[in-house]
Amino acid sequence: MIFELNEEQLAVQEAARDFAQRELKPGVIERDRDMIYPSDQVKQMGELGFLGMMVSPEYGGGGMDSLSYVLAMEEISKIDNSCSVIMSVNNSLVCWGIETFGTEEQKNKYLPKLASGEWIGSFCLSEPEAGSDATSQRTTAIDKGDHYLLNGTKNWITNGSSSKLHLVVAQTNAELGHRGINVFIVEADWDGVAIGAKEDKLGIRSSDTHTIMYTDVKVPKENRIGEDGFGFKFAMKTLTGGRIGIAAQALGIAGGAYELALAYSKEREAFGKPISKHQAIAFKLADMATDIEAAKLMVYRAAWLKDQHMDYTAASAMAKLFASEAAMKHTVEAVQIHGGYGFVKEYHVERLMRDAKITQIYEGTSEVQRIVISRNILKGQLYLPIWKGSVESFS
Ligand code: CAA
Q1: Exposed / middle / buried, residue 290 (Cβ in 10 Å: 0-12, 13-18, 19+)
Q2: Candidates 1.20.140.10, 1.10.150.170, 3.40.1350.10, 3.20.20.140; CATH matching 235-381
Q3: Is 236 in the pocket of ligand 1 (CB under 6 A)?
């Protein structure tokens, strides 16, 4: 086991940290408060290569590994989670989905725009009545010969108004259930696409989350991704990687809150000494640091498994489950360590606490992650070779 990052990964980590401190931190409180979409910051992320990190250079991307992407997500998420969710959806759902399963024509047409940030993408799976139960799609795409006719409503769509490309999941043959689902590349300015109002959210408030309505949208046949009926598997496979990105976001949130709490506790004095010297606070810091280290190992390993082309389904679900629960728990503790200061916006921790909540919900709730993990355990598909033989050794 080697626990060291290579030079390229260290350089990416430093570049992301520097960018977050220099460009994202100023104004992050105001953007969050007033729900201002971070247009300038997203443009800069495109210029710096953060929006198509894993896309091959052939299609205009950075050609980096998943671990580099995770490191960048983590650093950016310490500061601005509206920016990191925009980045996550574009990289690991939209670009990865098109590059892995798209045709050469689709890749050539769309990836250079998405990887450079000229276009932003969105992933349109959730519906008013199909959230965790993702097979219950009501959006339909009817085969009309040379095109599909798309009708339906998608909600909670990240990048809803800023995206120029939507990956839309729709039922093409209801009799076939999830095997009658397809996914389509839809351009936002096509006739029949309408964007609802921006959601007023608890956290990640400057990212643009919208409902999107599709009415008789003509989707050319060549914009379907994969074989007929591949759409649900496309969504599941893509989300499996997406969950590593959200796990990295949660890790960044926990890490950001911990760094703030640690610094504050060394400065703030009570009862004649820094509060970090009181056991009540020191033990909180110890628990935070321990969970963050554990989350880090899980998130980095999930990314590593993906880079090795090994099965990462359970690993990504475990990483997201653990990191998001840790982020929620420890951001609450970071606010507590800050006392009254933690309750006001100026000190950043209350924002991280609000942002943490969504990591337990989107790209599969904590409950969905437990479904994925338990099904993999029962199928014997855990990837941990060190567990092999442990039952036999007691028999
Ligand atoms: N890889 C490949 N195939 C998979 C798979 C995976 N990881 N998971 C499931 N499948 C396949 C199954 O093999 C099965 O195929 P067959 O019948 O041909 O064998 C098919 O998909 C259906 O699988 P299940 O029977 O397991 O389906 P289910 O109805 O029991 O649901 C679920 C499983 C895990 C709960 C799934 O519905 C799920 O993940 N729900 C959550 C959806 C979600 O994460 N939504 C997030 C929205 S996007 C978002 O949040 C982005 C954003 O904006 C930030």
Answers
A1: exposed
A2: 1.20.140.10
A3: yes
